[in-house]
Amino acid sequence: MAISTGNRGVVYTGPGEVEVRSIAFPELSIGKRQCQHGVILKVLTTNICGSDQHMVRGRTTAPSGLVLGHEITGEIIECGRDVEFLKVGDIVSVPFNIACGRCRNCKEGRTGICLNVNPARPGAATAMLIWEDGLAVRPSMSWCRTLTLIYSNSLTQTKHGKKFVI
């Protein structure tokens, strides 16, 4: 994968240290595995999350060289051949918790405790990234808040029109 000077990311280099670096332009593959069910996004916005801050402050483990960021809103600039419901130019939001959809927990509807959550790949604090399988939603609020609401609702089975507090 060649380095593209047009793609930069916020890279964690150690406790208390981050750098903006040129990084590889994403491809529809992870290692030797083709990801024809994925898309490549041009990042429009991303959040600085508490987990990013914990990594930078050394409160959790993170490998040096990790591109930080998640909770992405971006424009699709390339689609894999197996993508069915999205197209180039669509604006989508990507949750912080990317479940595989295939493990036992996901098949039982417990995507919040996916056994293969968030496969290793660069984060969203970059210009371009790959995103596999997802939910197309017009961005209107932070994904962290949105998914907390969706997941809480699935646990409580709250009906339309009812109120609950998280």
From TrEMBL:
Alphabetized GO MF terms: formaldehyde dehydrogenase (NAD+) activity; zinc ion binding
- Tell me which domain of life the UniProt entry assigns to the organism this sequence originates from: Bacteria
Any Pfam family matching the protein: ADH_N
> From which source organism is this entry?
Nitrincola nitratireducens
Task: Please report the name of this protein according to its UniProt entry.
Answer: Glutathione-independent formaldehyde dehydrogenase
Top EC class of this enzyme: oxidoreductase
SUPFAM superfamilies membership: GroES-like
Please report the stretch or stretches of sequence annotated as the Alcohol dehydrogenase-like N-terminal domain.
37-124
Keywords from the named record: Metal-binding, NAD, Oxidoreductase, Zinc
The entry sums up its family as follows: Belongs to the zinc-containing alcohol dehydrogenase family.
Is Oxidoreductase one of the keywords?
yes
Reported cofactor(s): Zn(2+)
Q: Which InterPro entries match?
A: ADH-like_N, ADH_Zn_CS, GroES-like_sf
Question: What does the record give as EC number?
Answer: 1.2.1.46
Q: Does the keyword Zinc apply?
A: yes
